[in-house]
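Problem 12. The chain below contains 197 residues. Write out its predicted structure in token notation.
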Amino acid sequence: MQLNRRLILASKSPRRIGLLKQIGLNAEIIPSSVEEQFEAATSPAENAARLALLKAQDVGVSIDEGIVIGADTIVALDGRMLGKPVDEADACRMLELLSGRTHAVYTGLTLIDRPSNRVVTEVEATHVTFRQLPQEEIRAYVASGSPLDKAGAYGIQDDYGAVFVTRIEGCFYNVMGFPLAKFYTMLRQFQSQLTTQ
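Solution.
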């Protein structure tokens, strides 16, 4: 895709940076300072959309020209939202909850153009099923430190995280925190709308 504007990612997530590079896009990295706090009265999908928008807006105010990407991923089990674990005990608790169950992964994506302030936000949902996880596997995975910066305390791209999952319904890359197909089609449409203004 040929870009006619700067692309700014409001995240320092190495997974999101890597996935953008995978499709040939080199975004500038300006992490958002927005705290990932959930609103219990709204759904996981609405929370993901709201946080993605807030992150893009937070970075967008300092950008004169370009397209800012905001993204937020939430894992939900029976409507209960799981963000990043606060410590190892919290990571173990989350993995125990997910063990042998099917959960949903929601990623909100926001694009904001500067200086026009045109904005679009969408949400991708994927359902993921875990096999029953033995306690020793949970403890070994958490001890590696890998789950501590990931929503739901796992990464499907990790050594251990990859062998927890028995079934995925939906976008694989969404489970990594950045649904590539949705993002690509959003960006193409967004950019075409900007050129016809």
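Discussion. Helices lie at 14-22, 44-60, 88-98, 135-143, 159-164, 172-175, 180-195. Students who got a different answer should revisit the alignment rule from Section 12.3.
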